[in-house]
Amino acid sequence: MNCTSFKMLLAFPLFICTATNSFSQNLQSDTDLRESVLESTVTSYYNAIDNQSRLYTNGPEYSFYDPAIKGNAYLFDSNSFVPGSVEYDGFSYKSVPMMYDLFKDYVVVLLPNKSAKISLLSDRVQNFDWLGHHFVYIDTDTLSNNKGVNTGFYDQVYKGKMEVLVKRSKNIQNSSGQSGKVETFFTSKKEIYIKKDGVYHGIDSEGSLLSLLKDKKKELKQYIRNNQIKFGSEQEQAMVKVAAYYDQLTI
Q1: What's 115-181 look like in SS3?
Q2: CB count in 10 Å sphere of residue 129
Q3: Coil, helix or strand for 95?
Q4: Tell me, what DSSP letter sits at residue 61?
Q5: pTM for the whole thing?
Q6: How many CB atoms neighbour CB 18 within 10 A?
Q7: Looking at the chain, which runs of residues are DSSP E strands?
Q8: Per-residue pLDDT, 1
Q9: Which residues, at least 6 apart from 87, have a Cβ–Cβ distance to it below 8 Å?
Q10: Which of 157, 225, 141 is nearest to 193 (CA)?
Q11: Strand 82-88's sheet: what is its strand order?
Q12: Phi, psi of 145, rounded to the nearest 5 degrees
């Protein structure tokens, strides 16, 4: 073999490697381009159909409450439209101006042209994200054993092998002041549930939680004590920490 032939033989694997890398990069580039085009097409589609989107065609028009009622009906008292995302009828919608009415348990959205606001049909909302919280819709008609949970939206604050869900709601109450004048106002309520082995359990204290998780009760009590976990005003966070630790113990 002469010197020229030997050099060509050495260069051939390098050529193959370079060509393969180039092909892979081009293939990845083509894939990224297709995904970008698809996302742009979907966005353009939703913009084009505007108010005709299935998100806006079914729900009834929504009206605000009498301003004489003190407080408001909305999640975390946020009574203005803030962008969120929602999965509706199997389609995902992002950057949708929305509010969450806790009294009626309605997701309220603003039409793109801001001409009106409508309530989404709750049973068509699979889930939504708003103000940093993820809400899921639970239909009790599909449950064989629900332990008192009601149909509606639940704040999924933890999801592992178990789930911790919070039902946030508001009610309207009346009271008479010192002058005898009747005042109407909103009050807040919070209920915590744990989904374990496919069943929802209402939990309202450290004791009820440990009773549910009794197979690891000793370890959980030690964990609660060592980490100074309080179940008073921080009950929601406490439930999440204990549930997450229980999941670790049962891996």
Answers
A1: CCEEECCHHHEEEEEECCEEEEEECHHHCCCCCCCCCEEEEEEEECCCEEEEEEEEEEEEEECCCCC
A2: 14
A3: strand
A4: B
A5: 0.78
A6: 10
A7: 82-88, 91-101, 106-110, 117-119, 125-130, 133-138, 152-159, 163-176, 182-196, 199-203
A8: 52
A9: 93, 125, 126, 127, 128
A10: 157
A11: 117-119, 106-110, 91-101, 82-88, 125-130, 133-138, 152-159, 163-176, 182-196, 199-203
A12: -150, 105
**pLDDT higher than 90, residue 31:** no
Cα dihedral across residues 222, 228, 233, 234: positive or negative: negative
Which residues are 140's β-sheet partners?
Answer: none
> What is the sign of the dihedral through the CA atoms of 129, 134, 139 and 143?
positive
Burial 217-240 (b: 16+ CB within 10 A, else e): eeebeebbeeeebebeeebeebbb
Q: What residues form DSSP beta bridges with 106?
A: 101
List of residues 6+ apart from 210 with CB closer than 8 A: 217, 220, 221
Q: If you compute the radius of gyration of the chain from its CA atoms, what whole number of angstroms results?
A: 27
Lowest-confidence pick of 125-129, 216-220, 231-235: 231-235
The predicted pLDDT at position 50 comes to: 52
Report the C-alpha gap between 83 and 95 in whole angstroms. Answer: 5
3-state secondary structure of 234: coil
Per-residue tokens: 214: 């009794």
The structure tokens listed for 233 are: 């005003």
Q: Cβ–Cβ contacts within 10 Å for residue 166, how many?
A: 19
Nearest to 241 by CA among 127, 145, 162: 162
Residue type at 141?
D
Spatial separation of the C-alpha atoms in residues 68 and 82, rounded to whole Å: 24
| 190-209 pLDDT, tens digit each | 999 999 998 999 999 999 99
